[in-house]
Structures are given as C-alpha cells and as structure tokens.
Amino acid sequence: MTVIKENWVFVETDLNKINPVTYELITKMKQISHDPVVAILIEKSDANLETELSEYGPDKILLVKDDELVDGDDLELTDALNKLIQKQGTPNTFIFPATVVGRSVAPRLQARLRTGLTADCLDLKFEDDLLVQTKPSYGDNIMCEITIPNHHPQMATARPNVFTAEKENNPALKIEEIDNLEWEKDTKLQIKSQVLPLKTSNDIAKAQRIVALGRGDKTEAGIGIANNLAKKLHATVGVTRPLTDLDQYTITEQIGQSGQTVAPDLLINLGISGAVQYTAGISNAKIVVSVNTDENAQIFKYSDYYFVGNALEFSKALEAIL
Ligand SMILES: Cc1cc2nc3c(=O)[nH]c(=O)nc-3n(C[C@H](O)[C@H](O)[C@H](O)COP(=O)(O)OP(=O)(O)OC[C@H]3O[C@@H](n4cnc5c(N)ncnc54)[C@H](O)[C@@H]3O)c2cc1C
Questions:
Q1: How confident is the model at residue 21 (pLDDT cuts 50, 70, 90)?
Q2: Ligand 1 centre from 242 Cα, in Å?
Q3: Which one of 183, 196, 227, 285 has the fewest CB atoms closer than 10 angstroms to its CB?
Q4: pLDDT value at position 87?
C-alpha cells in the first residue's frame, strides 16, 4: 500500500454549516505537520462552504458535491470515505472531531481500513511522519502517548475546544473536486428529516462564563441560587456527572472527560471535588474560582481563587453584591 504524504482532516457539517471544531483541527494540523493538510469536505451541489473553510489555511480541499451523501447516515459516510481513500490513496493521517458524528464514523472507517485509531485525543504532535496522540487513560490518572507505527492512515479523534482555531491566508490552496464516488446506500435506515437541537453542547463549550454545580451544591435551594447567580453574571450553568441524574441536566451541560471541554474566561466551581474526570474538561479555563467545604479539596489545585465554605452561602452572598 502506498501512503500519500498528506494529512487529512474530516470537515464536519451540520445542516449546511461547518462545525467550528473543524477549524480547530485544521489549525492544529497546520501547526504540527510538514506535509500538506487536506480538508475533506462533503457538501450540497449548490453550497459553497469551501470559501469559509479556505480562511483557515488548508493546503488542499478535497471537495465532494453530493446532495444525497450530505444527508447520508454514518454507514454511507463511512463507505464514501473508504471509496475516497481507494480513489486518492491512503493518507498518512486522518483526523476527525470527537463529536457524535466523528465518534461514529471514524471507528467504522478504521475497522474497514484495518488500521489504528486513538479516540478523544487532547494533544497531537509529529515525530517525523509518526503521529503521537496524547489522551488520558486509566480513569484519567495518566496521560498516554499512543502511536500507530505500522498502519495507515494513522487515525485519531480529537476533542472540540482543546485546540484554538486561527485564520490563515494560504495562497497555495488547491481545491480538487471528486466525482463519482459511487458509495453504497444503506437500505436499513432512512433519515426523513434533520433538525438542530434547541440546546447544543456548543452552548457550554463556547460559554465565556460558567457557573458549575457539583454534588456539594446539589440541593434544590443550592441549584436555584446558583442559577440566579449565573443569570446575574450572564453565565451558562454547567454540572459534574452526579448532577446529570437530575431531570434538568444532561450530558449537554456536563463538563469533563465524558462531557464537554470548556474554555471560559471565568469558571466558578460550586461544591465540586475536582476528580480527574472533571478537571480533564477545564484545563483551558482562564480564571477558576472554587468553593468547597473541604480545605483539602483537589479542585483548589486547579483554582486561581478559592473559598473554604458552603457553596450555597457563597452564591447567595456573591449574588447579593452583584
Ligand atoms: C469513565 C468515567 C468518566 C467520567 N466522566 C466524568 C465527567 O465527564 N465529568 C464529571 O464531572 N465526572 C465524571 N466522572 C465522575 C467523576 O469521577 C466524579 O465522580 C465526579 O466528577 C464527582 O462530581 P462532584 O465533584 O460533583 O462530586 P463529589 O466528588 O461527591 O464532590 C462533592 C464535593 O462537594 C464538597 N461539598 C459538600 N458539601 C458542600 C457544600 N455545602 N458547599 C461546598 N462544597 C461542598 C465536598 O467536600 C466534595 O469535595 C467520570 C467517571 C468515570 C469513571
């Protein structure tokens, strides 16, 4: 098998809009790669998403204009990407966002290509052509560096909000349109319509201020006051995993390893212990304030300011002076 010296990034689109995580991945790959970074874009025949995409400086865009495939399911997408690799050659690496779509399509493609995949990476770098993929392991207690030395493409999914997207003018950009992929239709599943959810994980992932609630502030009164505080601060409410047992919170608001990675200017942690699975999602927060009754709470190690005391009383007092 001939490996082409290209590093591919899958462009995720939702209802004819590019998911911004794509730009984060392109920027990161441009920073670390000495070979061309190629964006794989599938769009409707009358769309022009390549214009927006080109602002982030990929070296090449492989463009598939296909009205059916845009609305295709994960199996169809997998088959189309497999056909694309058969047509173009095997890239050195192929990176996907660790989103619902990326987490479904990337492993299916990996299995078909009989290569390796590292899921949910928090960092990527190259040693020559070898992609070194960093991810938390063993319950997030250690960071592992994983490589796939003998198979191609070296595949990874990387979490949204970990890398920073930066615009770049690339006058050398080439756009190559691919015709006749002849992907196989999935007859078992039919998607009749697609709607954007009212609330998305983007709300918390993009929030500039977050009030995060943990088990130590899980009472009805604690949650009520924390929500008032959030309103006054124009902040979004986030939670730790135990709070997702409540009807009003889901994985959409959960911060951490199995939830969302956040990068706010201000994060207030109320009654949160600081388990590694939670702190994995907050390393890009700028100012962290934490409140906990336990003076030895782990979360204080990740905090710029902390208060030893009751979260509810703290929220009440802070809300009163705002
Ligand atoms: C595979 C895996 C993935 C996971 N993914 C995630 C994830 O993405 N996100 C996540 O959050 N968790 C995740 N978890 C769970 C994680 O391990 C912790 O259990 C969880 O983060 C703990 O949440 P907490 O801090 O709210 O609760 P606790 O650990 O119970 O901490 C509560 C804290 O509140 C303090 N406290 C008590 N009363 C008060 C009070 N009145 N005022 C102030 N402080 C008070 C206590 O001192 C304590 O420190 C995951 C676990 C596993 C195994």
A1: very high
A2: 7
A3: 196
A4: 95
Judge if the beta carbon of residue 165 lies within 6 A of ligand 1: no
d(CA 72, CA 68): 6
- Where residue 212 falls among pLDDT bands split at 50, 70, 90? very high
Q: Which residues 6+ apart lie within 8 Å of 22 measured at CB? A: 9, 10, 11, 12, 39, 53, 56, 97
Least confident interval from 84-98, 212-226, 248-262: 248-262
Mean per-residue pLDDT, 245-258: 89
In this predicted structure, what is the pLDDT of residue 269?
98
Q: State both tokens at 132.
A: 């070194």
List of domains in the chain: 3-177 (3.40.50.620), 201-321 (3.40.50.1220)
Query: Considering only CA atoms, which of 246, 271, 243, 235 is closest in space to residue 259?
Result: 243
Contact 187, 171 (CB under 8 A): no
> Best mutation site among 262, 293, 295, 314 for ligand 1, i.e. most ligand atoms within 8 A of its Cβ?
293
Burial group, residue 194, by CB count within 10 angstroms (0-12, 13-18, 19+)? exposed
Q: In the chain, where does DSSP find H-type helix?
A: 21-32, 49-54, 67-70, 74-88, 100-113, 201-205, 220-233, 276-279, 311-321
ipTM over 0.85: yes
Read off the amino acid at residue 312.
L
Give CA–CA dist 225/304, Å, rounded: 23
Amino acid (1-letter code) at residue 61:
I
Q: Are strands 13-14 and 130-137 parallel, antiparallel or unpaired?
A: unpaired
Distance from C-alpha of 20 to C-alpha of 149, rounded to nearest angstrom: 30
CA angle 137, 160, 73 (to 5 degrees): 100
